[in-house]
Amino acid sequence: MIAADVFTKLDIELKPDPSRTVLRPFSFGYPTAFDRKPTRAEDVARRVMALDGETRDRMLHLLRDAMGKRHRNADGVFLRRFDGVKDDLGGIAVEDERDRLLLGAYFSQEYAFESAALFNPSIVTLPDQDPDDDEIRFLLSLRGVGEGHISSVTFRTGTWDGGTGLVVDPPSSQGVPPRIDSNDEGWVRMRADDSQDISETVIFPILPSQRQGVEDLRMVRFTDHDGVESLIGTYTAFDGKEARSELLRGINQQSFEMRALGGAFAAYKGMALFPRRIGDRFAMIGRLDSVNLWLLYSDDLHMWDEGMRFMGPQYPWEFVQIGNCGSPIEIDEGWLVFTHGVGMIRGYCVGACLLDKDNPSKVLARTPSPLLFPSAEQRGGYVPNVTYSCGALLHKRRILLPYAIGDQYTAFATGSVDDLLSVMA
Question: Which of 6, 100, 115, 190 would you label with 200, given CA atoms 20 to 30 Å apart?
């Protein structure tokens, strides 16, 4: 068997959907050269309040008729938005709920969070399942990109039978962005109370560090030494200039927590957490120098200052750089890590390596040739010649690998651990 034959590509593809939207804040002001009083926000509020009551009633009817069909609790979003901007409206008295709703809508916008791309998937099993079952339920995360190239995270669920039987549940038409519930002790706690299904929850940038995007979530089911299991994800927060790694914890339909990672080794992209401690220490795979794979250790999940380079480019398809494609997967033979390599014409391919179970800095084997690569029928896209993943799923020595094509849409492939190991050297 050759590396290109290890995986069987499935027919299922997930494409961007511009009809899926969220309501997000909208702010506006004068250019610096024209900055003056009253502000634009004050001017807009005064214009609205100067309208007669009948006109405002009609406006509210039109607003509710349009937004109520696409958003389950649009009124609640607009009222919360009004509460967020009322101190910027120059002391205008707004007593009527109708007027608070209208003003909240003027400072809101509808955003199609996956209109341009839906890619870089990660996948984990859903909890409370029998590992001996033939079919398993999974949670899939995806990076959505919309107007302004802003990235957010959206989710899907589905069922896999270990072979080619894959079902991805249709997503809800609703999109629910989170709002900050509290911000203390380093954790930002968020809620999406209106979300009734995980596919409705959209982790949209709401912190200054994420202004331009929440990118490439790498999920893992982490089991600590006390046996407590948590769903944890590492992702890249991008503010338009700087990127840093942050942690997402406790994903469910309505609440989760975010926290920036600290330490000299956390100010980079692509960190992926091992699913358990190694020798009583937390461990991650990283790509600190944008070229090589690094093994990172820490006694504190949130602080990363210790690491070593353990694997560099070796084959032509990865001469530019290598990186991880998600968290390591524990198998009998060691730690299976899917990797990406960058070669000619900035082509991204997917490969894999096997690390020693007790000493993951020791590379036991790796794929000399890529497993998945841009093909004639799966190329092009927003960024041509890119095949990429943020995580795979293992079930009974079988692998489900969701992967992105051209930084635009998502496809799926399945294969066996034994076949994969047989093409490593």
Answer: 100
